[in-house]
Amino acid sequence: MIKVGIVGGTGYTGVELLRLLAQHPDAQVEVITSRSEAGVAVADMYPNLRGHYDLEFTVPDTDALAACDVVFFATPHGVAHSLAGDILARGCRVIDLSADFRIRDPELWAEWYGQPHGAPALLNDAVYGLPETQREQIKSARLIAVPGCYPTAVQLAALPLLEAGLIRPEIVADCKSGVSGAGRGAKVGSLLCETSESVMAYGASGHRHLPEISQELNRGAGKDVALTFVPHLMPMIRGIHATIYADLLEGQNVDLQTLYENCYKDEPFVDVMPAGSHPATRSVRGVNMCRISLHRPQNGNKVVVLSVIDNLVKGASGQAIQNMNIMFGLEENAGLNQVGLMP
Amino acid sequence: MIKVGIVGGTGYTGVELLRLLAQHPDAQVEVITSRSEAGVAVADMYPNLRGHYDLEFTVPDTDALAACDVVFFATPHGVAHSLAGDILARGCRVIDLSADFRIRDPELWAEWYGQPHGAPALLNDAVYGLPETQREQIKSARLIAVPGCYPTAVQLAALPLLEAGLIRPEIVADCKSGVSGAGRGAKVGSLLCETSESVMAYGASGHRHLPEISQELNRGAGKDVALTFVPHLMPMIRGIHATIYADLLEGQNVDLQTLYENCYKDEPFVDVMPAGSHPATRSVRGVNMCRISLHRPQNGNKVVVLSVIDNLVKGASGQAIQNMNIMFGLEENAGLNQVGLMP
Amino acid sequence: MIKVGIVGGTGYTGVELLRLLAQHPDAQVEVITSRSEAGVAVADMYPNLRGHYDLEFTVPDTDALAACDVVFFATPHGVAHSLAGDILARGCRVIDLSADFRIRDPELWAEWYGQPHGAPALLNDAVYGLPETQREQIKSARLIAVPGCYPTAVQLAALPLLEAGLIRPEIVADCKSGVSGAGRGAKVGSLLCETSESVMAYGASGHRHLPEISQELNRGAGKDVALTFVPHLMPMIRGIHATIYADLLEGQNVDLQTLYENCYKDEPFVDVMPAGSHPATRSVRGVNMCRISLHRPQNGNKVVVLSVIDNLVKGASGQAIQNMNIMFGLEENAGLNQVGLMP
Amino acid sequence: MIKVGIVGGTGYTGVELLRLLAQHPDAQVEVITSRSEAGVAVADMYPNLRGHYDLEFTVPDTDALAACDVVFFATPHGVAHSLAGDILARGCRVIDLSADFRIRDPELWAEWYGQPHGAPALLNDAVYGLPETQREQIKSARLIAVPGCYPTAVQLAALPLLEAGLIRPEIVADCKSGVSGAGRGAKVGSLLCETSESVMAYGASGHRHLPEISQELNRGAGKDVALTFVPHLMPMIRGIHATIYADLLEGQNVDLQTLYENCYKDEPFVDVMPAGSHPATRSVRGVNMCRISLHRPQNGNKVVVLSVIDNLVKGASGQAIQNMNIMFGLEENAGLNQVGLMP
């Protein structure tokens, strides 16, 4: 049984880790920390966990955390910078759901996050935890940077085209997210009365997931890819829908459907839908899955890739557990085999 | 492995049976019927099932169904009347999610459903499938009438008071339901544009769940209980919230919290919340659970019982599987141990 | 042109006053205050107001406010206690949308609001601003306490029965509200992810609107009325649905439909629906209207009254303007004749 | 007073015409037809209209319609083809909200709508009713083809760039619509349980609004514009958000903000937001307004234009009334000066 610690368990990715790990056959949560809620039973804060957990939130304690086999950070950026080093030094592995180790260049990180990078020395150990591209590195990793939600949806949609060299190195990623992507913080902009019955773009001139997506698209393409990324806020709780627009190079007339099906045929958590399909975010609600469809409108040279994930699962906590499974040599889908909640 | 057949698998209770049975360790769906969708793969109709089922819908065929160990009817009323007899006669058990066998008096059934009862001879074999009150009868039953969604929420909230003889035999049940209770039929009244951002009562002068609730409250109380039942439509997909109002008899000063905790202490799917709580329907989203809280406003003699279920799970498909587990001697929570999806 | 000041214009009742007054033929907003947003254009904060207002929020200033003909307080409780006296003393009228002057007994107010009453000397001047019961007093009032949203929906539904002496002096009011009733404050409990796709009761053991409703029902009945009031939070922005349960006295067999139609036949903002109807909150979205339906389930002695309002309009800002119209001798529906937004 | 007839008043654009015309100072609805609802009071079908209309639906009758000054068609495609000719021949003007006269080439229309064009002889008289581009022609028009909802949002966003010749003739229009765009028909795909808490694209390989948008973008640009148009269904009732992506030509370094502000400075119903803004669909809920923002991410050569409308108002019924106002020489904003409902 893998002993699991969670730092910062009161947010949405924290409670989602708890939900998923409650059903995991080979892992057990031993410690969950929260400064503000120390002493509170997790099931009192999250009644859906009643009957599944007896745990209480505790003040973060490095000894208790390091006694686990793996510690998940479900914290705002900056926290893992402070704590991950000590925990790693004591032989415990770390899976960080925050942005702290996603960007390989600490200067770039500092520029987008508005503060100096707190642990540049750990960057060499950090593996970017997208199993579909980094599975081998993940197996032996000690520190995982779990990809962001938008980056997961965009990469899984766009990388097959870029890796195959079929398109101009230019991507438009029009992305739509449910409100849970903004977290559980008490912000006016996340109120039901501000977000329900409305759609709006945000960060059109620059969003923190942009450098992360660019870094990974560039890596996949082997060259610089011009990226336009516009996120939009949707009036719903969960789900990300990425709509990718790219231009086929002249003379390319590959069967895109076959390309994607081959690319993902061995992936347990990427599902290429039949030609002509339109994936709905609800088809992945609550599950660790990315569904993708391909379109070429009017058979022109514009490719449209549609990709959906649950931002809290394949876009965060589920993907984190998928990484854990790979790191510990478990079945990759252990504890991740639920069916999406529909309707 | 229990072989399962499902009649009428295209509605919401049908796809919910499929979702839950995909995770059941001891049961496997062998046959699923739908006249209108015969030949269609269930995973094409319900993409959340992709990767979980290879089944196709088939035209109902008594031979194929009777070769199963148990057949679930997830059909409009009247269908089980027609087909259940043949299936039962061939030794297969039947769990009917429709209203066909819930009401013991065929004349009363005919009055509320506007057509003659189609199988009165089977009524003696039918067991009302609320495990919390009929567990022993369910163990040996061949034909189960799964309770309606409103009746489940109301009975679990009100029966402890009635059975203990603590209240005047009069109940007000103000109930709120998500739109999935109206099914997957293409009705104007169920459109998002007609139901979203709005609340309304319906059936205030009489709803088909009224005689079912009355029958069972009367049985529990051992006498007639005056029932006022007003259902309301909520702008959401899943969930029922029942708010029960009753009057304590003069001189009764029992500790209601203790009464309920004792009443349900061995029940795996009824959770009495701590005193002062208010259960939210989202705490039971997707799971087979009823959460209950007790209040006595201003310490008067009015008792307010709050009860929540997911209408598609504890109010339908989950409860049906709970019945199957009991009938076949399995662990009662086999396949029903998920954690509610929150947020 | 009536010169209007608004204190505390950044909340939902504030912006709703601005929306409605923009269309008012005889009133014009001259001053709108907000300490936190001083210097910000109202149309920058609320883009729906672009093109309708050039105003900026200003720091509250008694001189500027008292130069208006009437000042609306759209503030948390306690603020009007502090400021209303000075403004009234300078001859300006005050319409307070907060709870400060609704309760006639300052001790009772202090008990429910957890602080001493800040202006007991003004209570004698305060008129409870429900036009359907206090129209004459409103005409000459200098200080109006606009009723709460729940109290408005409950009183309009219940008072005809109580005034006619037809029922036992006991009311159950099961009320459902959209999330805007909780205001625009940044609270976790009002986030979309916490309130969407869920229903829950709150304050079942005691809510601040209880003493207000009791005070007014008692006044209407001419005696004490036992009140059970349970509010529920609905997953929507606007709307209140009150479901009232009462018991007809033995031997009373009045035609309730006629009673209500007569009671409200001259009221511009109460609409008694045809017998058998169920009013939906969306039918009053954005408008100053209360729609009511009557039911007697199974022709028994239980009366069920259904009543809907938009909590921000007839439950707050619209009713405030209705009071203004009456106070200044305008047509009562001036500026309040919109059609509900449906769908 | 302009006498108005409405053909097909039971759908969402029909009830929206009624809502807006109830507040119009110079127009009055005299006739409203519906075969299926003939004899029903419009206020019985749409309770929000109670107190505003005494009209009943009637069977379509050319004499009664032609006695009006103008007839609106709020019908499925094909109906105006059949009836508009007779009505026009008798001197009445026609404003068609359907797609019947939007496309100038009847062969192209037939191809996309799957049936022959029913009134090609009228096409020469038809004026495309986008006031921002066709105001002069509308003034003298007898037959107006009101633009579709998506085409309105896309054209107002993209035309200034195309008309100024600043971009490559290639547009990506990623559009998001509320469910009311699908109408009031009883379709499974429009149920709350199918559309709530989910986002999906549809018609990615070809949608009927594509040829209409292309026709008008080509007209504006004076040459062919490659258009990629992908609509998405949003979990909300009203609103369209168009996100337009285009590439500035090399060497173009125009101030886009100024370009748009100048382009629309005299338009009453197009609002260019301040630089850096992101318009929300809720800011135009219920009103005849298009709000637009401009972005150049990372100051590159990609232009992103954000545009929002209420699909039932500026995308349909409001725009139809705006056309009527122009045709009859009224103030263009007569009856269209409401404030958006927010929250």
The assembly state of the depicted protein chains is: homotetramer
According to CATH, the fold-level topology of the largest domain in chain A is: Dihydrodipicolinate Reductase, domain 2
* Rg of chain A, nearest Å: 20 Å
Ends distance of chain A: 34 Å
* Low-pLDDT ranges of chain A: none
| Protein chains sharing the most extensive interface | B-C, 48 and 48 residues
Fourth CATH level, the homologous superfamily of the largest domain in chain A: Dihydrodipicolinate Reductase, domain 2
- Would you tell me the overall average pLDDT of chain A? 97
- Per DSSP, the total helix count of chain A is 11
Question: Can you tell me the CATH class of the largest domain in chain A?
Answer: Alpha Beta
Q: What is the makeup of the main sheet of chain A?
A: 7 strands, parallel
CATH architecture field of the largest domain in chain A: 2-Layer Sandwich
Order of helices and strands of chain A: EHEHEHEHEHEHEHEHEHEEHEEEH
Describe this structure in words.
The structure is a homotetramer of 343-residue chains. A seven-stranded parallel sheet of chain A has the order 3-2-1-4-5-7-6, with helices on both faces. Chain A folds into two domains: 2-124, NAD(P)-binding Rossmann-like Domain (Rossmann fold); 150-311, Dihydrodipicolinate Reductase, domain 2, CATH 3.30.360.10. Chain A contains eleven helices and 14 strands. The two termini of chain A are 34 Å apart. Chain A is of the alpha/beta class and 343 residues long. The interface between B and C is large, with 48 and 48 residues.
